[in-house]
Design brief:
Blueprint (H helix, E strand, L loop, with lengths): L21 E4 L4 H12 L5 E4 L7 H6 L7 E4 L2 E4 L1 H11 L10 H26 L5 H21 L10 H11 L1 H7 L12 H10 L3 H6 L3 H12 L12
Parallel strand pairs: 1-2
Antiparallel strand pairs: 1-3, 3-4
The structure holds glutathione.
Amino acid sequence: MSTLKSYAKGTEMPALTPGKLRLYSMRFCPFAQRTRLVLAHKNIEFETVNVDLKEKPEWFLERNPLGLVPVLEQDDKIIYESAVTCDYLDDVYPENKLTPSDPYSKARDRILMEMFSKLVTHYYGTFRSKGKDPEALESMWKNMLPFEKAIAERGTYFGGDKPSMLDFFVWPWFERMAVMVAMMSEVNPFPAEKFPKLTAWVEVMKTLPAVKETMFDTTTHLIFLQSNAAGKPNYDIGLTM
Ligand SMILES: N[C@@H](CCC(=O)N[C@@H](CS)C(=O)NCC(=O)O)C(=O)O
């Protein structure tokens, strides 16, 4: 059974089906979106159980003691940490392979993935300050430049003429860049003149079926982020069941 509304502490866990892959997720989590992108891109059959991250069910904490989504479960296997779940899926479902087979290309992508965690830190710094902290904004831009350069060298996608794991790994934060742009009237945090290649890449990414399947529009993201900032995250925006 696939669920939409999030399960909170005290709820009973939906019964597992033997052999069925399950994703524990939160609809607006960018890390879980990485896993959802890979699942969608590879047309993998799975079910989703969304979790209330403020009031976590006991059975969720039993599966991931870190208390973080995404988590994958299938029979006796439990896997968490977004990068690990994505690699696992790419290994177990090798069709539409996303990780380069060439060891050097794979290593270069890994370096960019490592660098991306810095970008994420400055992304949230810029977000929290609503662009009013010039140091956070400058740091975010500085950490975005290697990605602008990589796209310029590689083509349409980080994977060249087709999307790779790196494209899906970084996409969730670029999807949310539009939210930042909408929130900030005094400064554009993602100026096309500074990042022309990334700007073009964002538009191409939006046409991918996996992205279309997993993305939310800017207004919905904004509503979620505001509810989260107010300490009352609305995980179930727009859901009736
Ligand atoms: N390093 C983790 C980070 C995942 C993460 O931070 N997920 C957030 C939601 S976006 C979460 O589960 N937060 C719950 C908490 O911090 O208690 C990964 O890559 O999977």
